[in-house]
Specification:
Blueprint: H1 2-30, H2 39-69, H3 85-89, E1 97-99, E2 102-104, H4 106-125, H5 132-160, H6 165-187, H7 196-203, H8 206-230
Antiparallel strand pairs: 1-2
Helix pairs in contact: 2-4, 2-6, 5-6
Length: 232
């Protein structure tokens, strides 16, 4: 009786381990392969997008300082009534962080955030192993940056009724940055650990179609809202 019980107890862990190994093997088979899903490509796209966003943040910061020194002077990106950096820069949405009488332009925070993303992209290109918590925080930070950028863009489109050309570049750069971070998180960092549907989506290159539709939808929204005024 005791011998039978011991055999049953020993077989249970073996069956559990076999099931785990089978599930792991299935996930490995689902993982996309090829240059587009590797660390070099995904983190290179992230680096390029983050680099553009960082450069634009520096430009916006410089123009903010110029506007503070010369309040009545037009900026170089003031094209017409709709494409006007100064109109956007003078709105309260451009400086939402305030401490008493001090206010800080959004572009200053963009410099800080994008510097971090550039650094993470370089770490990814170096193929250094990232802890799971670090990769998760990177994706959440990218999502927060995207949400913040979209909020500012929606304010420009529907509240301020003026568009800053550099802000639009920053918005598209942040979008591509989020796409690259999401791609790397799933295909390189293998998070979430059991994301079978996401792995299938990337393996079949469905993500590429989604990305194209996403960017086209953003361009269409801008053109529908202010297209008639953009080229006057």
């Amino acid at each position: 009786m005791s011998s039978t019980g011991n055999k049953a107890a020993n077989s249970a862990p073996s069956e559990s381990a076999a099931t785990t190994n089978t599930a792991t093997a299935e996930l490995v088979n689902l993982r996309p392969t090829g240059w587009r899903h590797g660390a070099t490509w995904t983190y290179l796209i992230m680096l390029l997008a983050s680099g553009v966003a960082l450069l634009v943040s520096f430009i916006l910061s410089a123009e903010t300082l110029q506007l503070a020194r010369h309040p009545n002077q037009s900026l170089g990106c003031d094209v017409n009534a709709v494409l006007s950096c100064s109109t956007v820069a003078e709105s309260w949405q451009s400086e939402i962080v305030k401490f008493g009488e001090l206010s800080f332009p959004n572009a200053f925070f963009g410099i800080a955030a994008e510097s971090v993303f550039v650094t993470i992209a370089v770490i990814g290109l170096a193929r250094m192993k990232m802890p799971r918590w670090f990769a998760t925080c990177t994706w959440l930070g990218s999502l927060a940056a995207l949400a913040y950028s979209y909020w500012l863009t929606s304010q420009s489109l529907f509240v301020i009724n003026a568009l800053c050309p550099w802000c639009l570049v920053l918005m598209f750069a942040t979008t591509i940055q989020f796409m690259a971070v999401s791609h790397a998180t799933v295909t390189v960092q293998h998070l979430p650990s059991k994301a079978r549907r996401l792995l299938t989506c990337y393996r079949l290159n469905i993500d590429l179609m989604v990305d194209v539709v996403w960017v086209v939808a953003l361009i269409t929204l801008i053109l529908v809202k202010d297209g008639a005024m953009l080229f006057r």
